[in-house]
Amino acid sequence: MSRTDPVKVKICGLTDEDAVEAALEAGADFLGVVFFDKSPRGLSPLRAAEILQWVPEEVRKVGLFVEPDDALLNEVMNQVRLDFFQLHGAETPERVEQVRQEFGMPVIKAVGISAAADLDAAAAYAEVADWLMFDAKAPAGASRPGGNAQAFDWSILKDRKWPCPWFLAGGLTEANVAEAIRLSGAKAVDVSSGVESAPGVKDADLIAKFIAAAKGK
Ligand SMILES: O=C(O)c1ccccc1N[C@@H]1O[C@H](COP(=O)(O)O)[C@@H](O)[C@H]1O
């Protein structure tokens, strides 16, 4: 990625064909589908395969999991054409490495952040993951570790160097994404709640506005 490349955008938690089409039309670089039963965006492997079937090769398809066992990863791998696994739970660095080796899939590891000290903990994952994702820590009592529309102080990322590429996530919207990019130095962003009209229901207009704001158009 050169300094002048437009920011890459991942639209996560897609649940139907209309949302996939809206994200493609608006220029999304990554599309995410969720394999986590407690999420309002959760899909079966079969349904995920259906909604992603016409996505062009160059748009990267990401499967999001929370502490998945090998059986679930196998089931999804056998049915859905994915380019990345996103591990969004309390997986250890050892488990990240094991998943990469066993499944031969690049891994995006999400790390919950509420303060600068959490970035130190993320360093262990930077050695084993292909990408990192900095997401806000879930609020106490939340039923899921992400997708909660929570943001954190983006400026703590500024000037930190990482050996792998990374996404900024958590509470991003059309209204704040440009500022989040400016303050954090992010070259890739990820959004779910901020482009929805209700949990699990993507809004084509919000997707287009988010991508335009992130890419500075
Ligand atoms: O979207 C979910 O339901 C979800 C469930 C479990 C783990 C992560 C989840 N979402 C991811 O969280 C970040 C931030 O989301 P948001 O924009 O704040 O809603 C993003 O990667 C989502 O895909």
UniProtKB/TrEMBL annotation:
Look up the domain of life of the source: Bacteria
* GO BP field: L-tryptophan biosynthetic process
Q: Report the EC number(s), separated by commas if there are several.
A: 5.3.1.24
Q: Where is the N-(5'phosphoribosyl) anthranilate isomerase (PRAI) domain?
A: 9-212
- Top enzyme class: isomerase
Q: Which UniProt keywords apply?
A: Amino-acid biosynthesis, Aromatic amino acid biosynthesis, Isomerase, Tryptophan biosynthesis
Kindly give the InterPro entries that the UniProt entry links to this protein. Aldolase_TIM, PRAI_dom, RibuloseP-bd_barrel, TrpF_fam
GO MF, one term, reads: phosphoribosylanthranilate isomerase activity
This protein's pathway: Amino-acid biosynthesis; L-tryptophan biosynthesis; L-tryptophan from chorismate: step 3/5
Name the chemical reaction catalysed here. N-(5-phospho-beta-D-ribosyl)anthranilate = 1-(2-carboxyphenylamino)-1-deoxy-D-ribulose 5-phosphate
What family does this belong to? Belongs to the TrpF family.
Query: What's the protein here called?
Result: N-(5'-phosphoribosyl)anthranilate isomerase
